Amino acid sequence: MMSPPAARDSADAKGGPVAMRGPAGALADDAAPPAALRLHRLSKHFGKTVVLQGIDLAVAQGESLAIIGPNGAGKSTLFNLVSGRCAPTAGEIWLKGARIDGQAAHQIHRQGLSRSFQISHGFAGLSAFDNLRCAALWSLGQRYVFWRSLGGLRDVAMRAGEMLERIGLAARRNVRASELSYAEQRALEIGITVIGGADVVLLDEPTSGMSRSETLHFTALIRELTRGRTLLTIEHDMEVVFGLADRIAVLAHGELLCVDTPEAVRADPRVRQAYLGGDTPWTAMGTSDGRPC
Amino acid sequence: MSRPAAGLPGEPPERFWLRLAWPLYGVAWLLAPWLFGDGLGLSLLSQIGIASIVCLSYNILLGQGGMLSFGHALFSGFGAFLAMHTLQRVAGGWPVPVSLIPLVGGLSALLLALLLGWVSTRRSATPFAMITLGLGELAWSAALMFPAFSGGEAGLTGDRTAGGAIGGWTLGPALQLYWLIAVYTLVCTLLMYGFTRTPLGRLLNAARDNAERVAFTGHDPHMVRYLAFAIAAFFAGISGGLAALHFEVVTADVLAGQRSGTYLLFTVLGGTGFFAGPIIGAIVMVLSLALFSALTPAWLLYLGLGFMLTVIYLPGGLASLATARFRQQLATQLRRAPAACLALVGAWLLMLAGLSALVELAYQWHLRSAMGDALRFAGLSLNAASPASWSGAAMVALAGAALARWLARRIATAATLQEAT
User: Fold this and answer.
1) Alpha carbon distance, N-terminus to C-terminus of chain B
2) What is the pLDDT of residues B50-70, one digit of tens each?
3) 8 Å CB contact of A146 and B7
4) Is some CB atom of chain A closer than 8 A to the CB atom of B206?
5) pLDDT above 60 (res A287)
């Protein structure tokens, strides 16, 4: 089921020995670094409703994986479980060799996993610059600091300033997040997600609601910002998927249908089946279900 | 990196005035005793200092953290009680300078908040409001159950001169106490302003806007709220300690939910979106509690009315009147339709007159058994038992409101028309 991952530019990907190993990790070559992310029989039920059932998935360090599937397939729930927004009903989640399922979101983030939200206005009342400064604080060691001035923290200001340049918001530095345009808010959301230096990045429909040209520009931006990091993307736009992903995972009805290269997934009859009526996914894509969990 | 205090609604700061604001505020406290130096004036000024510290601390929760507390008086009151107990011990020989007793109040409130805060701040919205409400009521009733701590119904009294003179200062004269309160007010205000410019202060704004997103940056929003809760309690406790020295009596009422409600009301009235808003609220609080109540027995009804009108017509609070955006709008409208603006003020006054007549009628109705039905209002003879008086007053109020609405639309249309041409 799992083809060897075609790792992208993995110069920055951190390997190194780790104390704990995922259950599936035992099967892998001991010399290889642990998977950036490994899901083992992951399930999520809401009462009697089964949203995810027995998901097994490994993502190599530096790999880019796109997750596609029809509405209600459980894509967003998968992200919510991995990022700590909700706890799984059963199964295990391993991040770089350490088990993280059931941990709180902020604990998972501190171990190097960051996510974006499909609908987000960042911190609406703060300027774009302050949105990024807040997101950069933890990784620069400024933790709940109330005895120093934020303005005096040069490294935080530099990191946020650089990020403003990279996401093209340098001229909008002092504009409140709520007053940014939609595309600018999307860019800010990505900036907040990656500024902490997390090496596993989850992006939930980063280009949804964007125009064609914005999407193309944005895909390039994402590729640039996540270079060397492990990237998981929920995406409906097939052009984005092919532009970003090394492999594609197809979710349908809470189960993982297949994980393979874009070409193989495109040819897979089961994928066509999942999208009903035999339409190819890339013509029948809807919008996301937007389920909170 | 001069930016406005975090998350302020509105516009870029007018740096010139911002830079002047602090020296001006200090000079105001320095000169105030010469301007309002009589006994009542000094007492009101001292109360304004005490109230502004507690309202500023309340706004750390409400304005900066989006946490609606109904139990903030728990911390100012606890600080007041501990300060009073310390003052009584000083009279018994403890070597604590009386001028440091407000710090005892602050530290004891801080300790209490560290104990109670973790449970309270799990969530920020309704659960936080409900838990603080419950804690406040619990403390108030518990205080009456333990007279050894609270002095029962009569409360605790103390003598602020008990420590004797230090460098000629006994704190006995009102002016000496005023200087102590002024110093505490300025230092606390500076510290709380400084807090808005720290990383934690900015994270608190972030948690107010989107607590879940904060968690996905590595910070626990619960911890952010907890620390802010403790810091707010510290300053509330200092305010309580100053109040204990000022009034020299502390009763269980200082813990009551009504007190917490007062903090909420005047902080909102002043403007939660501005750092100085709570100071304005505190000034209005002291003046209306002390002065307005002497003008009319129905002052609470007026206060409620004023609060409602502020929330409806000036949702940013009184402080939003000082913003550049507001003044620009005012200036353009005055230039474009001066007559209509003047008429609008008239319509507002008409509406207020009608509303005041209603308030007076309601108050007369409430006391009719003792005072009869007839009353004089603005040279008119009204009767609380007469439907004509009631409907007349209501019609004046409605006519004023309708006229004001019509004029406001007219002014707005004139503005758009001028912009179009």
Assistant:
1) 40
2) 999 999 999 999 999 999 999
3) no
4) yes
5) no
**What is the per-residue pLDDT across A189-223, written as a single tens digit (0 to 9) for each?**
999 999 999 999 999 999 988 888 999 999 999 99
> Closest to A123 (Cβ–Cβ): which among B210, B220, B227?
B210
Q: How many domains does chain B have?
A: 2
Distance CA A70, CA A259 (A): 15
**Which one of B321, B345, B369 terminates a domain?**
B321
Instruction: Judge: B206–A151 Cβ closer than 8 Å, yes or no.
Output: no
- Please report which residue ranges of B101-172 form alpha helices under DSSP H: 101-120, 126-145, 147-150
B195 phi and psi, to 5 degrees?
Answer: -60, -35
Token couple for B67: 């946490």
User: A251 to chain B nearest CA, in Å?
Assistant: 25
Alpha helices in B121-254 (DSSP H): 126-145, 147-150, 174-196, 199-215, 221-247
Kindly determine whether residue B210 and residue A121, on different chains, have CB atoms separated by under 8 Å. yes
Q: At what angle do helices B277-287 and B257-270 cross, to 10 degrees?
A: 120
Question: Of the candidates B194, B200, B213, which has its C-beta nearest A120's C-beta?
Answer: B213
Q: Which residue on chain B is closest to A197 by alpha carbon?
A: B217
Question: Does A131 reach chain B within 8 Å, measured CB to CB?
Answer: yes
Contact A134 B217 (CB under 8 A): yes
Task: Please give the ipTM for the structure prediction.
Answer: 0.84
Q: With a cut of 80, say whether residue A24 has pLDDT above it.
A: no
State the pLDDT confidence band at B283, using cuts at 50, 70 and 90.
very high
Give B3→chain A minimum CA distance, Å. Answer: 9
Q: Give me the domain span that covers residue B342.
A: 326-420
Residues B370 and B297 both lie in one domain: no
The CATH number for B224's domain is 1.10.3470
Q: Does B263 or B416 have the greater pLDDT score? A: B263
Q: Which of A117, A138, A192 sits opposite B219 (nearest CB)?
A: A138
